[in-house]
Amino acid sequence: MIVFVHLLNDRSGSPRVLRNVMEALASRDSAQLLYLGDGGDGFLGEAVPQARRYAYRRGANRWATLFAYLGSQWGLWRSLRQARDIDRGAVLYVNTLLPFAASLYGRFSGWRVVCHLHEASMRPRLLQWFLLRLACWSAQRMICVSEFHRRSLGLVQARVVANSIDREMFAAGLRSVYAPRRDGVFRVCMLCALRDYKGVPEFVRLAREFAEAEFELVASDDAEAARRYFAAQELPANLRLRQAVADASDIYVRASLVVNLSRVDMCQETFGLTLLEAMTFGVPVIAPPVGGPAELVQDGVHGYLVDSRDAGALRDTVARLAGDQALCLHLSRQCRQRAQALSPEVFQAEIRRAVFEE
């Protein structure tokens, strides 16, 4: 039996990767349970509607969220302790550092604990230090998503398993025919949470400064969160905002270029899943020059590595791509080759080895 544990069920990368992990491990052990925080409406609730829920709701401020989080871990501990249908030989698969009560319970219960980490930086730093030390003490196997990720956390013994996308999206991407322009329009897309450190202000500024293109911002947040985030500003006419998209395939089909503009001084991405999704559809990308994306994307081959704080370089790179269809098509072919090297089949084989082999 494999018991999976996750905290925040949203539309970000970590629940999507966990969904792929569950599919990969089902071929080795079909007896699976999922413990899931009941806050959020994301990918895991749709995929596993019978998940066992434990209480977690984000508060109105940082302190309220912290107390809600600590309370959720007490509830998770009790739920695991009260379970009578989990056999003693179970594998406890803890997704992200956050559900630390599961790691602790697994260690004290003698279960095999696997921690799949996705974070590289967390605030406050003391919380990250505590959670990382606890995970190292509890787990028999740690999994990171890139070499950068492993180095940044100092986890010499951790396995690196690069993320992949689900089979359906991968197949759709390979079937898709990339076009630098559709109906004469060059469309720049970014998929992320509505946070400044994700580069949302830079994306809005780019849309204002480059009126020749259309821009699409796909937020993992809901409509109310988007309303609050943009309450003090008016979006440019060439920027479309979408929220909580369940299947982003149609976005990638229409995209001419996909960007990740995370501010490298505030957020160094551990992987960059939306970049891999775009590359599967043959869409060139712009990515940060550091972190996991710099391992995934080769500058000048699959797109370009640009520091989003350099507004001039960013604008010039977009303008170059918008004006050179032959270049876009060349990059597109390279993107598909890179994506095929990180196919779902490769991911599933790697994750099974990481969990079941010593």
Report what the structure shows.
With 358 residues, this protein is an alpha/beta fold. The protein folds into two domains: 2-164 and 343-356, Rossmann fold (3-Layer(aba) Sandwich), CATH 3.40.50; 167-340, Rossmann fold (3-Layer(aba) Sandwich), CATH 3.40.50. The protein contains 15 helices and 13 strands. The strands form two sheets. Strands 3-2-1-4-5-6-7 form a seven-stranded parallel β-sheet, with helices on both faces. The two termini are 18 Å apart.
What's the arrangement of secondary structure elements?
Elements: E1 2-6, H1 13-26, E2 32-37, H2 43-47, E3 52-54, H3 62-82, E4 91-95, H4 100-109, E5 112-116, H5 125-138, E6 141-144, H6 147-153, E7 159-160, H7 167-175, E8 187-192, H8 200-209, E9 214-219, H9 223-229, E10 239-243, H10 249-254, E11 257-259, H11 273-280, E12 285-287, H12 292-296, E13 303-305, H13 311-322, H14 325-340, H15 344-356
Helix pairs in contact: 1-15, 3-4, 4-5, 7-11, 11-14
